Amino acid sequence: MQVEKIHSMEGYELLEKVGEGSFGRVYKAQHRYSRSIVALKFIPKVGRTDYELHNLRQEFEIQKGLRHPNIVHVLGAFETVKELVVVTDFVDGDLYKLLDEEGTLSEEKMRIVACQLLSALHYLHADRILHRDIKPQNILLTNDGIIKLCDFGFARSMDLNTYVLTSVKGTPLYMAPEIIEEKPYDHNADLWSLGCILYELLVGAPPFCTTSLLQLIRKIRYESVPWPQNLSPDCLNFLQGLLEKDPRHRLTWPYLLQHPFLQGQVLVPPEKLCPKLALTSALTASQEMAKEIQRQNLSQRIPFKNRIFTRALQRMEEHERRRNSAPVPQPKVAVHTVRGDWTRRQSAVEVPLHPRLDPVSERQQILESILRTTRWPTTNNVAAMQDNSEQFNQPPSSPVKPENAAENKDADTEKGTTIVSWDEHNRRSEPKFLENEEWAEFLDSTLEDAIDNPQTLIHRNLVAVIVVPLRNVNASPSLVERIATLLAIPWTGSQDDVTEEALIRAYADTRVVPNLLYACKVMVQRRSGTNCSTGSGELGEDEDEDEEKKNDSELTADDLQSLEMLWGLVCRLVHLTTTTDFINQFCDAICVLDCSTSIHSLFSVDRRKAHAVCHILAILSHVLRTRSENVSVVQDILTKKDTDLLRLLSNRTPLVRSRCCTLLGHLALRGTEKLKDMARRPAVVDRVEQLLDDPDPHVQQSATFAYQLLRNCAATLENAEDLAAGV
């Protein structure tokens, strides 16, 4: 597509926002003269050094020279005062669209995707370019079924004397083991990421999927890939080659192209047309020796304090050793097994090349910068942030009171019973402007501290600051994800009773759960163009059906990743057995914030983000099981529009099917008549009966629980409790 060169925004008309990530915002736009449709990516200059901006400009020049049918073409770039703007071809769809339509793919269809991606990677690697952030969100799909690789924000062009790199880039879920271990790596890291995506297309989930960042790191480093039994020998051998943990033994160029699974369908140029010293060519003996020397030298130069993943894993292993060596105390209560899946995606972590400032003083500088443009919701928070750094190391003082404390005295008398005063104050005083980049820097700094010492988050004043962006309608999805990731850190492992109690008080007093629900509502309604600045703004009944479809299609991959992390944290807090504060705040927030429609709309993303739906189903079941007096909350969410239970019961992810069955059982046991009628529809009962023979044992167990209650309306509460105890 030819586009007349335009060096300012005057040449383009913005049509709609289509995505937002850690690197910038993407808009669909129209060229004012040729009327062609393009994508504009806006990358903020704020917070980037001159060196970083110079490298970005160089990368744009490199990308403009890339010409390949499976790579999104960069048409040009220009700058505004505050941003770099990159103009690319517009592609309306990504890999999730294919998964939505097909569920898991057959080997034949997966081969078609694999060959196109390998053709793109061969082109890049032949030109000594590493992508370094291959993930489903960066793989687009045209209406003609053409796969296109995009987002070269982390790409690196290697000179002829560079064999390996060290900076940690990418998404942990798709990161190669050598990057997780923070060792020097080469182009084979891209091939591992490709293997993860192809595995996900066949199985429905990545090779390693767990409840926490620390567990994910350990799984990638130490555990074997779980292989399905139904793969053909050629397909299994192909994936095993790509997912080989030792990069020296990984299936790579040029032998990769000869694998029988590909059937010679990868389009690549003749060897004689490839650039000299291409990464797709086998190295000579002298080049192999030079590469190994460079690898060893760089390994010794990476400071331990910059090894974020390694430090995090060592902290977890040390904690487990102490726990295993200590006397086992008698448990006060049984620990519930439901946990949120907080780390489906983590924003890329870049190893700093310079010594860090003192964490407290650095965070203080960032906060002072933020304070110049942000109005805090309480005067005490402002005073606390202007105080010296001792606030982060001292025990929390008395609870923070709103400015209108006198007016809300009665409301605050019984802690945790209402959030009306919070919401009303938020509507009046929360600013619309938000420095996303400065907040991201502050949260990243605090995340590093929390990994080393999770007790950092027992300080209520700090937690109160962390949740502030959740109440701002301009908070980016990546910022919300950072907040949820940070707040989830203390709950990834067990805590002693004193620490857990302090964490509960800090999170409850700052109303973490209501803040997260408000952020969820904002994110869902922002895509539909609904007013999100107040607690109201839900759609009318006549618009529900069309709007739900619209929300599903317009929620971006970054939105869904953030929502998955957000709901994972809410699920973990609500299921805590040592307090009822969070489940009470959850039920209150649903009513006060009027967000039941927004939550209901998320059921339609069960194929794109199954884990987010799993968390919501688990929470609703828990409300019915432990707070049956709040059954109206469950009814509001499930009946705003008729919930497609058959779709959830037929989801390709076993956990969705299992948790939907569990919810149906509790609806039959404790639901209102309206909910019981919904659960006992003949088609629903028939589908549950079919799941009695599901290949997954957990689905079978949950289906048995639901089926007996749905078929036996006269079941006693005692018998039902016996059934529920086994689910």
Please report the number of helical segments. 30
The main pleated sheet reads as:
5 strands, antiparallel
Separation, N- and C-terminal Cα atoms: 56 Å
The beta-strand count equals 9
Count of folded domains: 4
Beta-strand portion reads 5-15%
Structure description:
- This protein is α+β, with helices and mostly antiparallel strands and 727 residues long.
- The chain has 4 domains: 9-89, 2-Layer Sandwich (Phosphorylase Kinase, domain 1); 95-306, Transferase(Phosphotransferase), domain 1; 359-536 and 544-643, no CATH class; 644-727, Leucine-rich Repeat Variant.
- It has helices spanning 50-64, 95-102, 107-126, 177-180, 188-203, 213-222, 233-242, 285-301, 308-325, 359-371, 379-386, 409-413, 420-429, 436-452, 460-466, 477-488, 497-509, 512-526, 544-554, 557-574, 581-593, 596-601, 610-626, 631-639, 645-649, 654-670, 673-679, 682-690, 697-711, 717-725, and strands spanning 12-20, 25-31, 37-44, 74-79, 83-89, 129-130, 139-141, 147-149, 156-157.
- The strands form 3 sheets. Strands 1-2-3-5-4 form a 5-stranded antiparallel sheet.
- Helix 15 packs across helix 17 (497-509) and helix 20 packs parallel to helix 23.
